[in-house]
Amino acid sequence: MTAVDAAAPRRGTYANGERTRAALVDAAFEVFAEKGIERLSIRQLAEDIGTSHTALLHHFGSKDALLEAVMARREERDGPERERLLRDRGFLDAVPAIMELNAGVPGLIRLDTRLRVEGLDSDNPAHEFTTRRQDDFYASVISELEAEDAAGHLRAGLDLPVVAQLITSLVAGIQIAWLADPDVDMGAHLEAFMALIRA
Q1: Which of 49, 99, 109, 163 fits a disulfide with 186 by CB distance 3.0 to 4.6 angstroms?
Q2: Please, what is the end-to-end C-alpha distance for the chain in angstroms?
Q3: Does the pTM exceed 0.90?
């Protein structure tokens, strides 16, 4: 038996494990989006996904680690398109387009909104995760605004940290409005705000 032959079963087992892990992450996304994270034990989560809690613990170790995997999967799936829009269209035009894309994945907005609310409680398992995500989002908005300002695309005299906070708050708020009424045009609202700060 060659080394390649000997390694083949292990590679096959690894591939199967990765497929199983990916399927669990996709299923967990739907459960987290529908029910949140705070009141779900690992056993309840496993039951809703359709697997055993030992399988979840084997692949992820904890509910928090599973949540991290869900959000990493979201970034892996959606990140490249978001980056393309920012690169090709610039921040002011890309943000409304990104909101329109998000509207095509209702579970994504439900999950994001639930995590923001549940994560306000410092005792919640999602607190550290959501705080870090919010800080990263704010920092990325500041960076994009600085680039737009340097290019002369923003009105003179804007307080960029304040504008960044307004944008991050508008994104969170308009998502809640959209969940309550899907006829709300999230992209149009962000576009209207961007028009206010353009040069």
Answers
A1: 99
A2: 70
A3: no
List, for residues 19-40, the tens digit of each pLDDT value.
888 899 989 888 887 887 777 8
Which candidate, 26, 33, 178, places its Cα nearest to that of 99? 178
**Which residues contact residue 49 at a Cβ distance below 8 angstroms, ignoring those fewer than 6 apart?**
24, 27, 28, 31, 56
Instruction: Give the CA distances from residue 146 to residues 38, 90, 150, in Å, rounded to whole numbers and listed in that order.
Output: 37, 12, 6
Measure Cα distances from 159 to 86, 154, 180 in Å: 22, 11, 32
C-alpha 75: how far from its chain's center? 6
- Distance, in Å, from the CA atom of 2 to the CA atom of 132, rounded to the nearest integer, reads 48
Rounded to whole angstroms, how far apart are CA atoms 132 and 5? 45
Report the DSSP beta bridge partners of residue 31.
none
